[in-house]
Design goal:
- The chain is mainly alpha-helical.
- The protein folds into two domains: about 30 residues, no CATH class; about 30 residues, no CATH class.
- It is built from two helices and no strands.
- The chain starts with 7 loop residues before the first helix and ends in a 10-residue tail after the last helix.
Amino acid sequence: MLAPIGSPAGRDAVRRLLLELSNAADEGKVSWAQLQVKVVVAADVADGIEQAAGASGTYPSSRDA
């Protein structure tokens, strides 16, 4: 998925997707999921995002751009 999240509409669309997936999981309607997320973020928020990803049980990787 390539999502233009630079606009409010793009960000809202991604939020809705993640919310729908979360709701389906809460209702027991998801048995397995594989997601790949690639983002370019500002350096001052990168560590926090990587820590949050790791706390979710995923294996994040990062690099300086």
